[in-house]
């Protein structure tokens, strides 16, 4: 697969500007379904029973906090390259946070039982580098979970979803955040991001085996899991 290119400074700037409103707008735009998506992710993680978890591109820390609540004895670390987003995560009660680029993680090899990323891999300049770094810091046999947007496979749903992404969502989010361009970028990034079988192939090309896909909400969101070789 061709290596994806994104402008890291542009992405960091967008998320810095909307950090204080990010959670509220996400709940609004998803109709509260983001809570359900994270709950499904936690159920999948439960069978792994990890002692150490790294949440990459943790943002406001929503998934990391859900994991921490489900596994109170586990060490849960949140990493993100956008410091203002980590300020929000800290206020939300996530104690261990690191400013770090997902493509160059400041952790030793084979350090975590599980690595997660919710709506973050898509924003990296190289999905391959991001996934390879996640594989590097995972212990052999450790687990990966990616939660992100995807394009529905159903031919009736896909055009409606695309219309929502490009013509409705940016206007609503623009009113709420003052940064319509941030959510115009969201639609474009979702269109470019691989899903289903393409994402499974990408994950398995970056040091993982047994990748699986779990489409949610008519395929507009998907969870991917895999095991580190």
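Sequence proposed for the structure above (229 residues):
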């Amino acid at each position: 697969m061709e290596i994806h290119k994104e402008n890291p400074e542009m992405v960091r700037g967008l998320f810095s500007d909307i950090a204080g409103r990010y959670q509220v707008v996400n709940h609004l735009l998803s109709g509260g379904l983001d809570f359900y998506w994270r709950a499904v992710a936690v159920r999948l993680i439960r069978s792994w029973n990890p002692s150490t978890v790294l949440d990459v591109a943790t943002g406001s820390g929503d998934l990391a906090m859900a994991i921490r609540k489900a596994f109170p004895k586990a060490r849960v670390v949140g990493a993100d390259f956008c410091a203002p987003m980590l300020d929000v995560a800290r206020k939300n009660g996530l104690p261990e946070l690191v400013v770090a680029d997902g493509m160059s993680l400041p952790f030793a090899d084979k350090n975590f039982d599980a690595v997660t990323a919710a709506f973050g891999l898509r924003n990296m300049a190289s999905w391959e580098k991001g996934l390879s770094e996640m594989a590097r810091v995972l212990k052999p046999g450790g687990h990966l979970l990616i939660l992100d947007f995807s394009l529905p496979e159903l031919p009736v749903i896909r055009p409606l979803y695309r219309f929502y992404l490009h013509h409705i969502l940016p206007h609503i989010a623009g009113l709420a955040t003052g940064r319509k361009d941030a959510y115009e970028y969201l639609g474009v990034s979702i269109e470019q991001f691989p899903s289903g079988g393409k994402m499974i192939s990408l994950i398995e090309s970056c040091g993982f085996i047994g990748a699986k896909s779990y489409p949610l909400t008519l395929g507009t969101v998907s969870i991917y899991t895999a095991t580190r070789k």
